[in-house]
Design brief:
By secondary structure, the protein is α+β, with helices and mostly antiparallel strands. The protein has one domain (2-76). The chain has helices at residues 2-10, 56-66, 70-76; strands at residues 16-27, 40-51. Helix 1 (2-10) packs across helix 2 (56-66). It is flat.
Amino acid sequence: MTIAMYARRKGWPLESVTVRLSHSKVHAEDCAESETRVGMLDHVRRDVEFSGPLSEEQRARLLDIATKCPVHRTLDSEIVIDTHLTEPGVSGLSA
């Protein structure tokens, strides 16, 4: 959505975006991009395909925008998952 909104705002001829993800675990010591050196890390490969008569510069910029979307930034950061058991009909979320 972030890429499509950006292309629309710029008036670029983006027709569609296809994203394919794959997930694996890698040893932390084998991952040059990680500061973590112990244990296993999640590795997500993302293949992005843009359809439409875009220039190479436009394609490069859209790929750059893809790394700045909220979902990518969330997955790229340290994540803490706080799980609670609740009763049916009680969300546990407050406004």
